Amino acid sequence: MAEKDMQVRDKQELQTQAESTRSVPVYVPAVDIYETEENLVVLADMPGVAPENVDIDLTDDLLTIRGTVTPEGQAERMLLSEYGVGDYYRQFTIGRIIDQSKIEAVMKDGVLKLTLPKVDAAKPRKITVKTK
């Protein structure tokens, strides 16, 4: 893989016209998406988000991920902050190749793993060649 293909992206704040009920920045979580024969897998970095604070919504073909961060250390006085703490929000349009009833999510160590199983028609299959 060429070096230019591996570039680190800065944390991106979500730009939206909608108003929030919380006064924290909202970031777009960085994701990796890969495909296996059976699934599409989405890994979303959402550091500081507890599993119980992840909300995943699937309406029609729109998959929405929200992560809410509970602020820590409010009793302390901040001397230096180089890391922006905030909530996370991202949406994906899910194609018809995904079996929406079987989507699974696991949150561990600040990484959300979404497993999106393919419908049988979208999975690769071998076709046997018959002889006459």
TrEMBL record:
Membership in a protein family: Belongs to the small heat shock protein (HSP20) family.
Gene3D superfamilies: 2.60.40.790
Domain SHSP: 21-132
Pfam families per the UniProt record, alphabetical: HSP20 (PF00011)
Stored InterPro entries: A-crystallin/Hsp20_dom, HSP20-like_chaperone, Small_HSP
PROSITE patterns (UniProt xref): SHSP (PS01031)
Protein name according to UniProt: Hsp20/alpha crystallin family protein
